[in-house]
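In the lab's daily routine, each protein ends up as an entry in a very long ledger. A line of letters takes care of the sequence, but it says nothing directly about the fold. The three-dimensional part falls to structure tokens, numbers that each stand for a local backbone shape. The outcome of that step, for a single protein, is printed below.
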Amino acid sequence: MKEIDPFHIAIKDPAALAAGIREKSGKIIGYMCSYAPEELIHAAGFHPMRLFSSKSEISLAENHLQAYCCSLVRGVLEDSLAGRLDYLDGTVFPHTCDSIQRLSDIWRLNTNYGFFADVVMPAKLNTESARNYMTEVLKKFKTDLEKAIDHPITPADLEASICLFNRIRKNLARIYELKSQSPGIIKGIDLFAIVKGAMIMDREELAQRLETIVLLLEKKDPPPSSAKRIILSGSICDMVDIYSLIEACGGTVVADDLCTGNRWFEGLIPVDIDPLEALTARYSDRAICPAKHSGNTVRGEALLALAKTHRADGVIFALLKFCDPHAFDYPYMKEFLDKAAIKSLHLELDDQQQGQGQLSTRLETFMHMI
């Protein structure tokens, strides 16, 4: 589908995309975590842009971060120190994992992109006090943005952004739904491009493009598929080849539990209450990551429910190397699947080093097992 080509172009060269946004008098704020309140950033007139590693060789970042920090954190810092992120007008750091929290300090001391904010959301989300605290955090972030732009963010501004992001989330969810219903309707590599592109492209343009893609997919008569139905679980998935490798081995990704996937766009924001309360509700109730707590068994139950809903034949844990929260979470998540007789595979991925031959062999073996 030619309508997906702009997404491939966008993720291939984010710097060129950013240059185009800046030419339209747009200012860009980078972020690294799906808990970044994009709606507030957008309502303030900034373009929210998720930061991914360019996968360049890491040398400058070695002076600030240990080798056992995850490749995403080290890679993004390397890009910054090397000048590859000079298109940014600011950065936002939601405090989630230890590595991103420490990167925040290093970033503040060694870069100067103008606007900088730490958004210290609560780690525990299932109490009234946590929701109250979340509201106060969002209010402070709104105030920080207002100081940067030197004028208030009106309720109308925020409501418009909420409606825009709801359109985006609704259509991404619909694309996932269509992929699950008919796996052959769209290739995994195209789904990857759409999701990653959605995190960096102009949001108004994005909303329109997604609606067009949904309409075209709904009219499409997909070929039947006998591929094994796979769910990806993990933090970020920035390895485009994994989708193609899975398909080459006889599988297809029908759903995911990723912070660069379902966890990022899952759940619409209420539009019939105060905008800040609506944001509190969404960021408190959305599917959580291992760095947040909403009950001892919530993540395992959610993954099991996802597997059953999408009739998964197996789950692949695609975990970023040295990502401690997901590594700690893995044994208990696997136990939930084992009890339900759902087979799983653990893959440890790294932005800088990928042995595709070994990955392919492991994937082929897994597909035969299920």
